[in-house]
Design brief:
2 copies of one chain form a homodimer.
Chain A: E1 10-13, H1 17-28, E2 33-36, H2 40-49, E3 52-53, H3 57-63, E4 66-69, H4 74-82, H5 87-90, E5 96-99, H6 105-116, E6 121-124, E7 127-128, H7 131-136, E8 140-144, H8 147-160, E9 163-168, H9 173-201, H10 206-214, H11 221-231, H12 241-257, H13 263-277, H14 289-296
Parallel strand pairs in A: 1-2, 1-4, 2-3, 4-5, 5-6, 8-9
Antiparallel strand pairs in A: 7-8
Helix pairs in contact in A: 1-2, 9-11, 9-12, 9-13, 9-14, 10-11, 12-13
Chain lengths: 301, 301
């Protein structure tokens, strides 16, 4: 992308861990980016990266035809879209709201209908991969939206990720796929803590467990990532415990609405809740091992 | 290995799916192999591969200083070792019994003590990876035994696997590691069925689910292997459902003995038992999806 090509401005609400990465990825590809966060510190970081900070979501939307929302949950998404000075108040007819947060599929499909009532288009585009991959444009995206909406966003989506999966034409389908993936991630994370802790209690060495599991049929991406950082006493909070707790909870809610039992997911969710109850809300979600430690006194290396 | 080097004979009880693969791997490396199976058809296959079929485990043991047992479970292992015409009746003092079956760690440590009473050595060496990797010598092995026993078996172990993990000096430790791994494999397999089936019920496409999960944080070795074969309608029985059901059950038994809760493993085991109850005992363990189908009527592709 040469600098002589003038790309249209893009709006982004919520330059947090993932949102700031996306902001940098868009700027690097030449898109002017207008941002807004509730936290002045996040606005300052986005400004330092080259974005223009606006006074409200409406002000962001007034500058761009596409506004990306990367906030925490459905409640924040609703406020950002429909609150006073929300996106809807500023976006021109035919504009696109791209929702990257993990929300319930029924919420997302309803949001798309409500936006359509304002002559706005919705793209359901949950993301996965963490801040580093957001910044490098290599996070995965699970995308659902009308042909018209996806066409309008094509260049922006291409700048955001080289790992884009179009799930279907209906907003909500991307969120469904995200919940299916994160149901697995949540189960695997609880399973990793469960297996590692009983192995330690039985007298095995943590690194031996890690090496054997990752070379055998017990391997998972979550085991590899979370247990590696845990064994290495890496105290960075790459993913705070409440986030995946919420996502597994959303998967259980979706399933309940479909009268669909998720016995394994439900038991994993209990491990997440127990670990939160033990006081690990500010810790990384590799802290699930404390759920087992609290009961069994297993010594951690 | 040139054919001019004369290697000592090795005994193998149970040339089944894994045992025949091991037999072939040993023969290829130049070890004469003496075998015995209860099933004449398995003996014939071993003979066709170049092994010498003997009339009993005792007769096998009379020809070799190391006897590998690759039978189904602890009951068969006990019969093979201590039954009439068992290994103990034929093996010279100082000989080694290598147990590759997945058994309870307490059973394995007790077996080692009982063999020691006959002046015999035990190697606890559970295996993982399936028949093809057994034959190519690339299965993984989780090995526990005294320095003396492991030294006696060094060449045989090297011929059996290029992925050997020495877990510790005490028989039972290899079995513990195997149960920790297979606890994970069992949970991941149930989670794969759970996530795939709710995704299908929610209207997603099976191949889309597969591709997104395997590129995202929900990836696991089990999801990749079992769901690939399931989507492809591959009807080979690579691993019959009762085997992993038994292994997860052994992990739960081990944990119960340690007063250690495995909430996620326990819920996964219920999915295995439910699928067996539905009549899938002769099917591959990727049939867990029928547990969810039976309740929800989810259409399978």
């Amino acid at each position: 992308m040469t600098s002589s090509i003038k790309l249209p401005p893009v709006g982004l609400i919520g330059p947090g861990a993932m949102g700031l990465g996306i902001t940098r990825a868009l700027l690097r590809r030449g898109f002017p980016v207008h941002v807004r966060d509730l936290d002045p510190a996040r606005n300052a970081l986005a400004q330092a990266a080259g974005a223009v900070v606006e006074s409200s979501p409406a002000a962001v939307a007034a500058k761009a035809g596409i506004v990306i929302s990367v906030v925490v949950d459905a409640a924040q998404t609703d406020e950002v879209c429909f609150g006073a000075d929300g996106i809807v108040a500023g976006l021109q007819k035919g504009g696109v709201v791209m929702v990257c947060s993990t929300v319930a599929p029924t919420y997302m499909s309803g949001l798309a209908d409500r936006l359509a009532g304002h002559a706005l288009l919705a793209v359901d585009a949950p993301i996965s991969g963490g801040p580093a991959r957001a910044e490098s444009g290599t996070m995965s995206m699970m995308i659902a939206g009308s042909d018209e909406a996806l066409e309008l966003c094509a260049d922006v989506l291409a700048a955001m990720s080289d790992k884009r999966f179009v799930i279907g034409p209906t907003p909500g389908q991307g969120s469904t796929m995200k919940l299916v993936n994160n149901l697995l991630a949540g189960i695997h994370n609880a399973a990793a803590a469960e297996a590692m802790s009983i192995g330690l209690k039985a007298g095995l060495d943590a690194n031996t467990i890690y090496d054997v599991v990752m070379a055998s049929s017990g391997a998972s991406w979550m085991f590899g990532d979370r247990m590696r950082r845990w064994i290495d006493h890496d105290d960075r909070v790459a993913a705070a415990l409440p986030i995946l707790t919420k996502d597994v909870g959303l998967a259980l809610e979706m399933a309940k609405g479909m009268q669909f039992p998720l016995p394994v997911g439900a038991s994993a969710h209990q491990v997440f809740l127990g670990t939160l109850a033990l006081g690990h809300a500010l810790d990384d979600d590799n802290s699930l091992i404390h759920y087992y430690r609290a009961m069994t006194g297993v010594e951690l290396p």
